[in-house]
Amino acid sequence: MSNKVIIFSAPSGSGKSTIVNHILKLHPEMEFSVSATSRQPRGSERDGVEYHFLTPDEFRRRIAEDCFVEYEEVYAGSYYGTLKSEVQKIWDRGHVIIFDVDVKGGVNLKKYFGDKALSVFIQAPSVEELRKRLVARGTDSPEAIERRVAKAAEEMTYADRFDYILVNDDLQAAFAEAEETVDKFLSV
Ligand code: ADP
Ligand code: 5GP
User: What ligand has the least distance to the C-alpha of 59?
Assistant: First the structure.
């Protein structure tokens, strides 16, 4: 069971956080990989819980010191990355790692971990539905929503580079499909 990792990627608004949180609740042996980011904390976010918040200078220093498994400039000026130390910490506890990263990060993590990894692409039924969900979530400005939607079209083209594509239409059905896929991967 140890040393396995599960990677979830999706365009923003597809339901990735909702599905990841559902899976984490069911599996005490799984642990969420806390990424580092150079963006500012939002709302109630705490350092070391949602993210390790670094200044842009600190982030660049860690890049130079080869501290990351992968990193991306997901939005202009905002870096996000998976720290090697985070991966090791979770494996030392014997836990399965869950990653929530952007689609490029997902492809890179799959390359890095190979057969140890299951990579899942979560897909909203359509771009229009994705826009509706972002509006309903109410966490982004109209401009930010349009930016995320515009980016989604390009991100969708990465889907076939993942081990599994999970279409999140009916949420209960998506939960069941995610559970089944994860259980199958962990059982072999
Ligand atoms: P992501 O992490 O991919 O950005 P979220 O998990 O935050 O997406 O989901 C975006 C919004 O859509 C949230 O408000 C969430 O409650 C809602 N949502 C998720 N899945 C569904 C679904 N199957 N049907 C309708 N709304 C959904
Ligand atoms: P947010 O700012 O909304 O928390 O996250 C923005 C995006 O960054 C999401 O798509 C999220 O999956 C992605 N992300 C978070 N951590 C990482 C990481 O470590 N690496 C990469 N490549 N993307 C990440």
Answer: 2
